[in-house]
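Section handout 9: paired folding examples.
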Amino acid sequence: MKTLSPSHRKIQPDEVTVLVTGFAPFKSTHPTNPSYSIASSLPTSLHPLPSHPNAPHINLQIHPSPIRVSYASVRALIPILYTSHPKIDLVLHIGMAAGRNFYTMETRAHRDGYTLRDVDGKGDEQGGYFDAKGEWKMGVWEKEGCPAVLETGYEVEDVWRRWKCELPDVDVRPSNDAGHYLCDFIYYASLAYNFKRAAGDPRPVMFLHVPGEAEEGDIERGKEVAVSLIRAMVGSWIQDRSK
């Protein structure tokens, strides 16, 4: 995975700010999207654990509304997210993977091929695609020089190890397939925004896929999983900055 450039490496901060987002419902079988229920249930801050007393204080900024499951909405929203939260250090996007009973931290996102219809009945109209003659048509991101796949800036193995250590009895996994739908799309959009702004060095951005169940116990478990992942992200990011 891509490591942070020397320009990002500083003395360990006293505080780290993490932006967290979740999605609105999009399936009739799932009238509640647990991703936003989990995001909105998170505390506004996380204090260092007794086992890591020197860890920084973590401030959480939760996007105030669930994100519409729409390609056009996500394209429009990502720049606003970053410009309206200029002091964020890390980003965690959360989405639902119906039918799963485990949690995944996604390691990469894809630029093209978003043909699955969103809640407006549309695919990604600005992405790359093959036309009726089989010829490739470049999308906006490709024209801007963004590669077909963008990977998170984290050392994935390190984040996963830290995450798993905090949740030994929960099935948490790394994944390299975010699904080619809105979860994959927002992940790429977020990574691409940073890729363009930081000359190819994406800010630490992570995507968490959660199961589709949304009962009270499911949300509480998802909250625990998200908090543990955020702590793992911060710990790994701090370690990388100190190299």
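Moving on to protein 2 of 2.
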Amino acid sequence: MKHAHTSSVRLYLQHWMWRRQVKYLLLPAITSENTILEVADIGCGTGIWLIDLAEQLPRAKLVGYDVSPLQFPPPEWLPRNVKLEVLDALAEVPSSLVENYDVVHIGLLVLVVGDNPLPLLRNVIRMLKPNGYIQWDEADLGGLFRTTSTPTTSKDSLEELYDLVDKRFNRARLSHSWVRSLDELFRQEGLVVIEYKQFPIPNEIAHPWTHMHLLSLGELIKDIEKSGEDSHKWLDLHAGAIEEARHGASVRMNMVVAVGRKPSKVQGTIASTEPL
């Protein structure tokens, strides 16, 4: 998706709702014995995850990486221990970053990696020091469903809109089911699984969560318009879905947190390039 003002707003909203529900930025076990850490955030976007983490870990070195700097805030506004840099995390890892970090965080990149998270996972493992941690926070889009606050509340437009989204992803042969087996992927790549947990979207944040997702679909529709495709049906359904959301229609899925540790000597298939 193209970077835009609405995209940045969506990322801030997404971050704060995620933190409200999960209750932590980093799994507490990671920082229980050591707070002087070198931490990288992959796909950092606005840098908000690191900005919040800087309050908890003022002595840590925090570096965010993103393929584009367009959503970075001014460097003068960042905490003194936070730095944001441009990096394509799917490209070859620079030698200076190999085994450089105690912790690498990945947040909500399911639409970036598509149906094969292994290239990104393997790059992150290369960036970790021995005994370092990876924390991958992800939305289970494969388990997305729609519901309403009452049996009489309409969600017809919402259902039809997401049917269009599903068809678009199916045409591209994209599947996001791997999110539900992140713990198994960690083990496959030689990591020790420390935590794997799914957090449902509760009623208390269903309203803002749904509007956040509709913001995301608004960005997708803008891309469809720019490509020259006919977007009239998309626009009509999007407007109808927004109205339904105002009256109690919602989009739900699980928030997933997977934490793994890189052993001193990793066993497994890290060097493999076979797809899932």
